[in-house]
Design a protein that fits this description.
Elements: E1 5-8, H1 10-19, E2 24-30, H2 37-49, E3 52-56, E4 72-76, H3 84-90, E5 97-102, H4 107-120, E6 124-128, H5 137-142, E7 152-155, H6 158-167, E8 170-175, E9 181-182, E10 192-198, H7 206-211, E11 214-217, H8 229-248
Parallel strand pairs: 2-3, 5-6, 5-10, 6-7, 8-10, 8-11, 9-11
Antiparallel strand pairs: 1-4, 2-4
């Protein structure tokens, strides 16, 4: 049992079933929950894949009362992190994109970032093994199952990871509130690029800023600079997508 983690919520469980890239040991469903389209699909897919699901009383959900589990919990294998070198080797097509996270501490932010990256077509997310929130059940829930649709690369050193990317023809773009250039001034559609996002209180570390090819900011009005990191990433990453789609025409 220790080899499994718990995920909860209809979207997270359903997306894990659909993706099929993680082993699901068992699904428990509250006897008190009303069936709907998503719940019926969860049961149908579980039957199809031979996964045990059980209807249980409320007492089984007591340990998870603080979470919005929606009456469904699955025991699931941990995500399999991808090696950076393997990602680079397996992705030889041009003009790929990566988001690098430097010191993100909030699970909700990481979950929202993963969801945004999948929606915008980002090819992978890089996180450090220390001083950054790791993928957990809250991250999976907030990502609405998007965690199953994008490679997560865990590295011991972000500096070394950035150097490896640069050696393989990737351009590095860091975000910093004091930067001179705005994020929309960079031409993203003709290069492989990695965007580094830092935590609100600390920002991107100096060593990563020094290693970057571009440093950009999101312009702010009223001297109020406290945009949530997941919101800030959304603004930047969808600008990169806008450029790609516009210049395809």
């Amino acid at each position: 049992m220790n080899d499994f983690e718990v995920i909860y919520g209809k979207n997270s469980v359903l997306e894990a079933l659909i993706a099929g890239n993680r082993e699901i040991n068992k699904i428990i469903i509250s006897k008190n929950i009303h069936s709907d389209t998503k719940m019926n699909k969860i049961k149908d897919l579980a039957k199809e894949k031979g996964i045990i699901f059980q209807f249980v009383g409320r007492d089984k959900f007591i340990p998870y009362e603080e979470f919005n589990h929606q009456g469904v919990i699955a025991q699931i294998s941990p995500i399999k992190y991808v090696e950076l070198e393997d990602f680079i080797a397996d992705n030889k097509s041009i003009y790929r994109s990566i988001v690098v996270l430097d010191g993100i501490e909030d699970s909700h932010n990481l979950g929202a970032i993963i969801r945004t990256c999948v929606c915008a077509g980002v090819d992978a997310i890089v996180i450090p093994s220390r001083r950054n929130v790791q993928v957990n059940s809250v991250v999976e829930k907030i990502s609405a199952g998007a965690i199953n649709h994008i490679p997560i690369i865990k590295v011991n050193s972000l500096v070394n990871a950035i150097q490896t990317l640069k050696e393989n023809d990737w351009w590095i773009i860091a975000t910093d509130a004091s930067a001179k250039d705005n994020y929309y001034d960079v031409k993203y559609d003709d290069m492989n690029f990695a965007i580094i996002m830092g935590a609100e209180h600390a920002g991107v570390s100096k060593s990563l800023l020094k290693a970057s090819d571009f440093i950009v900011k999101i312009p702010m009005q009223n001297n109020f600079n406290s945009l949530n990191v997941s919101n800030a990433l959304s603004a930047i990453i969808f600008e990169t997508l806008r450029q790609k789609l516009t210049n395809k025409k």
